[in-house]
Design goal:
Helix content is 48%, strand content 14%. The longest helix is centred in the middle third of the chain and has 21 residues. The N and C termini lie far apart (77 Å).
């Protein structure tokens, strides 16, 4: 990096080969640092503070792109030079990156393991600051037809409606679903409320000739599977025992 770049914050005053956009077009996006990529999104600065300076301050304060992705918009507004339009551009770009990661791991064909599904859901859910509950719709071949968010809660609780989940399942004409929600704390062990919800959903779904195959809890690059831990089978067996009584 030239000394001229460091002493003159206006990108338009840099040597052409040093400018982020020109550098990207000539050498590809992989050649740019995180600061340079953010500067392209920020585009313009303010008096005595260029786009590169704003992006550098952003990374100095928050350190990683994941932190920028998860931090509240109100906190980003505290950085001088970041207005709502620039914040929206940054947030939208980071969200596209998350979705790209999920698309690259998209489930094709039949679901064969909890790990297969977790690899799709972890990039989408691990950085959420509130608990979010999703259902994964499966056709008769156990292929994913859609992933639908059904409820958004607080930092440590989400309360999805069993009735709404079953209505969505029936309206999409699928015979089975998978459940998933995140724990922002990173701890993937299920709470007692998580277990009760899963058991009650299995019972309600069975009465409508629907199946609940699994419930994943997403944490920090890890997950908990009710099926892998034997709880889905346990709840189904309890239900059968109750019917026999």
């Amino acid at each position: 990096m030239s000394k001229k770049k460091l002493t003159n914050s206006g990108i338009k005053n840099w040597p052409e080969d040093d400018r982020p956009r020109e550098k990207l077009l000539k050498y590809g996006e992989q050649s740019l640092s995180n600061t340079e990529l953010l500067a392209i999104l920020i585009r313009t600065g303010i008096p005595n503070k260029g786009a590169f300076d704003i992006s550098r301050e952003l990374l100095q304060k928050l350190e990683t792109l994941r932190t920028i992705n998860t931090i509240e918009i109100s906190e980003l507004r505290k950085i001088n030079g970041l207005n709502d339009a620039k914040i929206c551009q940054i947030k939208a770009s980071l969200e596209l990156g998350k979705r790209l990661m999920s698309e690259e791991k998209k489930v094709y064909g039949t679901i064969k393991s909890s790990k297969q599904l977790a690899e799709v859901l972890i990039p989408l859910m691990r950085d959420l600051t509130n608990e979010v509950f999703k259902i994964v719709l499966l056709n008769k071949r156990n292929q994913v037809t859609n992933i639908i968010e059904v409820a958004k809660g607080t930092i440590d609780r989400v309360s999805p409606s069993i009735r709404e989940i079953l209505q969505i399942t029936l309206s999409n004409h699928v015979p089975a679903i998978l459940l998933a929600h995140n724990h922002p704390s990173g701890d993937v062990l299920p709470s007692e409320a998580d277990k009760i919800l899963t058991r009650n959903l299995i019972i309600a779904a069975c009465s409508m000739e629907l199946r609940v195959f699994d419930h994943l809890i997403i944490g920090e690059n890890k997950y908990y599977s009710f099926s892998d831990e034997g709880l889905i089978e346990k709840y189904e067996m309890q239900m059968v025992s109750n019917f026999e009584l």
